Amino acid sequence: MKFINLFRLVGSELAVDLGTANTVIFVTGKGVVVREPTVVARRKKSKELLAVGGEAKKMLGKNPEEIEVVKPLVDGVIADFDAATDMLKYYFRQLSQHGGIIPRLSGPKVLVGIPSGVTEVEKRAVQEAALSAGARQALLVEEPMAAAIGSGLSVEKADGQLVVDVGGGTTEIAVVSLAGIVINKSLRVAGSEMDEAIVKSTRLKHGLLLGEATAEEVKMAIGSAVPFPSEKSYVVRGRNLEKGLPKSLKLVSGEVREALAGVVREIVAAVAGTIEETPPELVADILKHGIVLSGGGAQLYGIDKVIAEETRMPVWMVDDPQDAVVRGLAKLLRNGKLLEQVKVTRGLR
Ligand SMILES: Nc1ncnc2c1ncn2[C@@H]1O[C@H](COP(=O)(O)OP(=O)(O)OP(=O)(O)O)[C@@H](O)[C@H]1O
Ligand SMILES: [Mg+2]
């Protein structure tokens, strides 16, 4: 009897944040067991999987002709169904073999986060990917709702709360009240667009072509939305566009901030626009609580300050912002009543 209980409890419930940039998997009783970039490497012809996660990300831009390095998600939604399924299958299998966590025959019940405002087809794809990867049941929850719950907000109350999750592919902005999403905006502009902006500006200004991964490093090291107390610099290596040869260059934080300004402006304008569309009673609630900021992209230095200034509202950055969605999904695994209220669709197999 004890064994069966343990089997059911520890065995079969997973929360999956299938993000554009990172995949985070939580297992009941174990905590977060996977936190890896959403990237797979496979043979082009046979589609045989060669590497997943961090290992695959290292191959980006360095792969020979016969190997392709794929990002299964673009702008928050599945762009390559087989790659997404193979990646999940790989993780589910790893968990069942090494940790003995997942009972192989019954498969796990899986909660997966999806961006708000995606199409039925896009939702279906996420659910199908989880089921094809071996899930016994796949339930979907909108990411802003999961982020709100993961940030510790009491979403069931008649009390408006504004959540902004800046991820890799999408910025999710939502007003949550009474366990529902009252207003939402899903902007397909987030961390990746910041990287692209750095690539573009370095090409135009210095005639130097940077790889995507290098641009992301620059963003994390010296990127910001407001000036740093003292200017920072970062040395990059790229390809000189004129001569086609490698070249080193010192980038300074001021120029990176300028490069990022457009993307930051778009995100801030979307937040302000959402507040404008929010009914006055809820705006009063939001003013009382402040705006809750989560997601990896929200860690861009000073983006909280810019949002606070533009909206004239207090802004709170969640602890470990990159894990807010998976934390919310994990809480829902323990709270069946709330899950019933917030889940999007049900897929049983
Ligand atoms: N310190 C930092 N400064 C700026 N950006 C950062 C920092 N740390 C991480 N990021 C960015 O956060 C993004 C990833 O965030 P997150 O893991 O929340 O995205 P995701 O959930 O995979 O994507 P999405 O929710 O859009 O599908 C990446 O673009 C990454 O470069
Ligand atoms: Mg996310």
Overall CATH architecture of the largest domain: 2-Layer Sandwich
Instruction: Give the total of domains.
Output: 3
Structural class: alpha+beta
CATH superfamily of the largest domain: ATPase, nucleotide binding domain
Mean pLDDT over the residues: 91
What attributes does this structure have?
349 residues, alpha+beta, Nucleotidyltransferase, domain 5, Actin, Chain A, domain 4, six-stranded mixed β-sheet, five-stranded mixed β-sheet, flat, binds magnesium ion, cytoplasm, MreB_MamK-like, ATPase_NBD
Topology, element by element:
Elements: H1 2-11, E1 13-18, E2 22-27, E3 31-37, E4 40-43, E5 49-52, H2 54-59, E6 67-70, E7 73-74, E8 77-78, H3 81-97, E9 109-114, H4 120-132, E10 137-142, H5 143-150, E11 161-166, E12 171-177, E13 180-187, H6 191-206, E14 208-209, H7 212-222, E15 233-240, E16 246-252, H8 253-277, H9 280-289, E17 291-294, H10 303-311, E18 315-317, H11 324-334, H12 336-342, E19 343-348
Parallel strand pairs: 1-9, 9-10, 11-17, 17-18
Antiparallel strand pairs: 1-2, 2-3, 4-5, 4-6, 7-8, 10-19, 11-12, 12-13, 14-15, 15-16
This protein binds adenosine-5'-triphosphate and magnesium ion (MG).
Structure description:
The chain has helices at residues 2-11, 54-59, 81-97, 120-132, 143-150, 191-206, 212-222, 253-277, 280-289, 303-311, 324-334, 336-342; strands at residues 13-18, 22-27, 31-37, 40-43, 49-52, 67-70, 73-74, 77-78, 109-114, 137-142, 161-166, 171-177, 180-187, 208-209, 233-240, 246-252, 291-294, 315-317, 343-348. The protein has 349 residues and is an alpha+beta fold. The protein has three domains: 2-145 and 324-348, 2-Layer Sandwich (Nucleotidyltransferase, domain 5); 155-189 and 264-321, Nucleotidyltransferase, domain 5 (2-Layer Sandwich), CATH 3.30.420; 191-260, Actin, Chain A, domain 4. Strands 3-2-1-9-10-19 form a six-stranded mixed β-sheet, sandwiched between helices. Strands 13-12-11-17-18 form a five-stranded mixed β-sheet, with helices on both faces. Strands 5-4-6 form a three-stranded antiparallel β-sheet. It is flat and about 60 Å long. Residues 1-10 have low confidence and may be disordered. Bound molecules: adenosine-5'-triphosphate and magnesium ion. Adenosine-5'-triphosphate (ATP) binds next to helix 6 and helix 7.
